[in-house]
Design goal:
208 residues; mainly alpha; Ferritin; 8 helices; binds fe (ii) ion
């Protein structure tokens, strides 16, 4: 099954060319996801709730950073809307909103976040941006390859938002830090992110 790397027009129009995802998603992930669409949908619900929570947590951590607060207020609201949309699909399909063990992706990325400020802020913004970029890429793959038309259209409808979210996190990093430092750290974290996904997690997840 062919896979392709999706580049958002939003990102390429507003950002310089950057190596945001070091390695594109493998065919193996697409096959795994398509064979377990119910689990992917349920995990997607968890991902949207977590994305809202990440945006809120950053606002709690940096309450005086006006640009950050403004931008993340919008993202948190949009992620909650996505959460609601995915949950409506779960309900239609009688898939219970059950807990699901997360893949190692988030925790491993979190370990790469440096603990002292201001490094911590930069890393949190870049890691959040990388997760959004990967979501954008994978929702795009599902939109292209999912045989269920309703789901394919749904995934396609979310792609642009996730690209915008990636762009917003990158712009925040670029607002508060020197461009050269942002680029260098982004490259390091993108390497970590791609390495985590180099081995397919046995349980199907959006970030397996
Ligand atoms: Fe989302
Ligand atoms: Fe998002």
């Amino acid at each position: 099954m062919p896979t392709k790397s999706f580049e958002s027009p939003v990102i390429s129009e507003t950002l310089p060319r950057i190596r945001f995802l070091t390695t594109p998603t493998s065919d193996a992930w697409v096959e795994q996801a398509l064979a377990h669409l119910d689990t992917i949908l349920l995990d997607h619900s968890h991902c949207e709730r977590k994305a809202a929570s990440v945006a809120l947590n950053l606002m709690f951590r940096y309450p005086s950073s006006v640009k950050l607060v403004k931008s993340l207020t919008a993202i948190a609201q949009e992620e909650l809307q996505h959460f609601e949309q995915v949950n409506a699909i779960l309900e239609q399909r009688a898939i219970a909103l059950a807990p699901l063990a997360p893949p190692p992706y988030g925790a491993t990325l979190n370990k790469a976040v440096r603990r002292d400020e201001p490094d911590r802020m930069l890393d949190l913004l870049l890691v959040s941006g990388l997760i959004e970029a990967r979501s954008h890429e994978r929702l795009g793959l599902l939109a292209t390859h999912c045989p269920d038309r309703e789901l394919a259209e749904f995934y396609g409808s979310l792609m642009a938002s996730e690209a915008r979210h990636y762009g917003a996190y990158w712009l925040l990093a670029d607002t508060y830090f020197d461009r050269a430092i942002v680029m260098q750290r982004l490259e390091e974290l993108a390497e970590v992110e791609s390495n985590i996904l180099a081995t397919l997690h046995p349980e199907p997840r959006i970030h397996s």
